[in-house]
Amino acid sequence: MPDDYTPATIADVRRLRDTLEQQGKKLVFTNGCFDLLHAGHVRYLEQARALGDAMVVALNSDQSVRQLKGPDRPLNTECDRAEVMSALRAVDAVVVFDDERATSLIEAIRPHVYAKGGDYTVESLNREERTALEAAGTQISILPLVPGRSTTNTINKMHATDCATASNGLLRLAVLGSGAGSNLRAIIAAIADNKLKAEIAITLSDQAESGFREIARTAGLPALFVDGGDNPRRLSEAAQKEIFEHLERARIDVVVLVGFMRILKEPVISAYAGRIVNVHPSLLPKFKGANAPQLAIDDGELETGCTVHLVTAEIDAGRILAQAKVPVNIGDTAESLHARIKVEEHKLLPQVLNEWRERGLPVRGAGRP
Ligand code: GAR
């Protein structure tokens, strides 16, 4: 019987919506992964249901949960999740959807009320979903999360006991990049050669099509994508939060930025303080920001190089961990110089990470509640 559970179809839900509308009633819509149900979910769903007269829950399919949350999720299959969800008092129908976003479902169902949980604001909702909701004339309701109850919390508690024993001595890395991915390739190679005792738990990019993601995929690594928003140097509030959630879920020790061209802010900066490193193509504090090789040429430098440093809220200003020098040759272009700088980066970054690990910094869960 459990595996026979059949979720509703979009047509079923659309019919339900139309019937309700004829009766002057409202259909509430909410969506999510709902992988490991807890009291916070139940209370949220009760509150959401109270906004109308019936509620449909759109569940992310197994494949879309993997895309959103990483390869270790979901813990429960879409069939099981749908069955448990449909048994709740607050839930009238469950549909399963395959996309990362619920946009097409919203367009098809045109719910009267859309409920979203958490510390979102209407402004920080996904842009496409918000546009679809506005086009459907749907009322948007943001409901507060129940403090202390979350799937990530539950999973972290379960892992807390593992941490003491799971000291296989490997640093769990998240590698974030936007570009060609040569530093990612160097980290992968250093791990394979046993020069860096680490494992790459996730890679994450703000560029859907990039060399970086291609290298991650080819190496069989989780290649997560986060839509950073319109400004190419900034991350929207929703994206900052999404990145934080990915890091937490993957229980990351160290966040490694390799040409990640958007500025990380809260909540990641505080939660991972002292555990975020960046590689930069200059001898910092000289030539911060973008185009560092070109700036070194323009300034007539005879020597430049690369820096591995800690990331703080101030751009390219955190504690310097290591540097390597590279001569500026006559006739160098930004490209030729940058290519020689990268050769040094590829050696320096894995070396710094490994030395860091050997000195006992930073252990998973250290300094965390
Ligand atoms: C690297 O040279 C890195 O130092 C630089 O982007 C490049 C990424 O190359 N980072 C910055 O300029 C940050 N301000 P990759 O994608 O081939 O690893």
CATH class of the largest domain, named Alpha Beta
- Radius of gyration, whole Å: 23 Å
Total beta-strand segments: 12
Mean pLDDT: 89
Structural class comes to alpha/beta
The proportion of residues forming helix, as a percent range, comes to 25-40%
Do you know the CATH topology of the largest domain? Rossmann fold
Helix and strand element order: HEHEHHEHEHEHEHEHEHEHEHEEH
Low-confidence stretches: 161-166, 363-369
In this entry the ligands are: glycinamide ribonucleotide
What is the rounded distance between the termini? 42 Å
**Major sheet characteristics:** 7 strands, mixed
Q: How are the strands of the largest sheet arranged?
A: 8-7-6-9-10-11-12
CATH architecture of the largest domain: 3-Layer(aba) Sandwich
Number of helices: 13
Instruction: Please tell me the total number of domains.
Output: 2
Strand content: 15-25%
Q: How would you describe the shape? A: elongated
CATH superfamily of the largest domain: Formyl transferase, N-terminal domain
